[in-house]
Amino acid sequence: MLDEFGSLASLTLRISQRDFSAKYKGSTLGLLWSVVTPLAMLAVYTFIFTYVFRSTWTGINGTSQYALNIFVGLIFHLQLIETFGASSASIVGNPNYIKKVVFPVGILPLAKVVTIFIHTLISVVVLFIFYAFINNGFFLLGMLNFLIVVILHTLMCLGLAWSIAAVGVYVRDISHALSLFSMLLLFMSPIFYSIEMVPEEFRWIMNFNPNTLFINKGRNALLSGELLSISSVFWIFCVTSLFCFVSYRFFKYLKKGFADVL
């Protein structure tokens, strides 16, 4: 059993490495695009919301601190929407694995999530450097807590990836629906504002969005010094793990018809 697990893990890493290399193959900047993209988005959004819309954030003074709060939210948002895009095509884009060979197709969405996780970690490193530059030092405990939140968020993304990948085989419109949903999530998540700024009667809508939990937990841990409790980590881990298990079973159930559809 351990040998089988090791083989699957090795195969997953090889596929993830292939996807990672293919993404930047032939580009001049290569891996630097993983740094440039979130920084460019951060610069644009910070300019628009601070200098054009003149938005304010309760308890925050200065553009740099505002940008830091936005950066935290963007990291979780980008990880989620990249999961949407990659997972929706992970099975449809690899029909040969389904039709011609005996292949553990469940690792295709998993490999996509691993690749996205690596990109996310690069953004996290940039965030930590940005944080240290603004605050004249590192908050190591807060950074460790932030990484825990990112890992828990990745578990949720994995559960979504298996479900989206399976449904995407039968419903080809899902990629278009997810593109629209991603745009809605950008403004329905507390990225450019704090949850406290939302009127009380509408907060339930924000709290229904699972990204709200992770953005707030990560932001509080790194920027407000409100470290995670063992109980909150335990319950989030249990819920996300259960979600992954149910999603994988759902994937396996729908997998029976993949060859017929593709």
Give an account of the 3D structure.
The protein has helices at residues 2-24, 33-52, 63-88, 95-99, 107-135, 140-170, 174-188, 203-208, 210-224, 230-255, 258-261. It has 262 residues and is mainly α. It has one domain. Helix 1 crosses helix 5. The longest helix is centred in the middle third of the chain and has 31 residues, at 140-170. The protein is globular and about 60 Å long. The two termini are 31 Å apart.
- Give the structural class: mainly alpha
SSE series: HHHHHHHHHHH
The overall average pLDDT, rounded, is 85
Strand content: under 5%
Instruction: Give the number of domains.
Output: 1
Strand count:
0
Sheet of most strands: none
Low-confidence stretches: none
Q: Rough shape?
A: globular
N-to-C terminal Cα separation, in Å?
31 Å
Cα radius of gyration in angstroms: 19 Å
Helix residue percentage: over 70%
**Total of helices:** 11
